[in-house]
Automatic annotation (TrEMBL):
Superkingdom, natural source: Bacteria
NCBIfam families associated with the record: NADase_discoid
Protein name per the record: NAD glycohydrolase translocation F5/8 type C domain-containing protein
Annotated stretches, region: Disordered: 81-103
SUPFAM superfamilies: Galactose-binding domain-like
Organism the protein comes from: Streptomyces melanosporofaciens
One Pfam family cited in the UniProt record for this chain: NADase_transloc
Domain NAD glycohydrolase translocation F5/8 type C: 100-223
Length: 227
């Protein structure tokens, strides 16, 4: 009342109030006041006419040409995330077999019966072979070496120390993998990868405890993978 200063700090009529700096950053429309009688412009996206159909066709064409790679990616994911299943051959045979120790004894699910070749000794070149009626994807091989998984029976016959695994595809292509076994009773596991496999051969390359009165014995062979 004494100094004459207005107590009301409101802006003068017709003059816009200046916003704080932190509000002006996010409000661009507040920086430029609109003229009387005008409206703010609305931003609209152009409606796609040919862009969307062309994009859909391009993606469909890319998926068609990359279908083999996508199939491999899907199969790889299944192999990495899923557990391999037992693969049962439809036919088995051996290069030769001793009386009472046929090739089927190595694939019957019992580790107290075994296959042995007809002649005694290291059995070099003798083999087991298994066929599948449909192509399989092999992932794991289990071998029980010797005549039995029991320790007191294990050393009574020769045991294979080296095998050359041969995989045959439905197109006749062959791939080989060396397998080295420990001289111990029980199952031994090996990671073996093969696709489109219809036949597997396991020749003996060397043996432990080979003698003229012993035969190289394999108690059990098991395959795991997917059909």
């Amino acid at each position: 009342m004494r100094c004459g200063i207005l107590l009301d700090s409101a802006p003068e009529p017709g003059r816009p109030r200046r916003l704080p700096w932190w509000r002006r950053i996010f409000r661009r429309d507040a920086q430029r006041p609109l003229a009387a009688g005008s409206r703010p412009a609305h931003r609209t996206w152009p409606r796609p006419r040919l862009t969307l159909p062309v994009l859909v066709l391009a993606l469909a064409a890319a998926a068609w040409f990359a279908r083999s790679q996508l199939s491999e990616v899907f199969t790889f994911t299944q192999d990495q995330t899923g557990d391999p299943k037992a693969l049962h051959p439809t036919a088995v045979r051996g290069s030769s077999q001793a009386p009472g120790h046929r090739a089927g004894a190595a694939f019957d699910g019992y580790n107290n019966r075994y296959w042995a070749p007809a002649t005694a000794g290291p059995g070099t070149g003798q083999y087991l072979e298994a066929d599948f009626d449909r192509p399989v994807r092999l992932r794991k091989l289990l071998i029980t070496s010797g005549r039995s998984a029991k320790a007191d029976e294990f050393l009574t016959q020769a045991r294979p120390s080296e095998l050359t695994l041969t995989l045959v595809t439905s197109e006749g292509e062959r791939t080989t993998k060396g397998v080295n076994l420990q001289d111990q009773p029980g199952q031994q596991s090996f990671d073996v990868r093969g696709s489109d496999v219809v036949r597997i051969r396991l020749p003996v390359d060397a043996a432990y405890g080979a003698r003229s009165d012993r035969r190289t014995a394999i108690a059990e062979v098991e395959f795991f993978g997917r059909q």
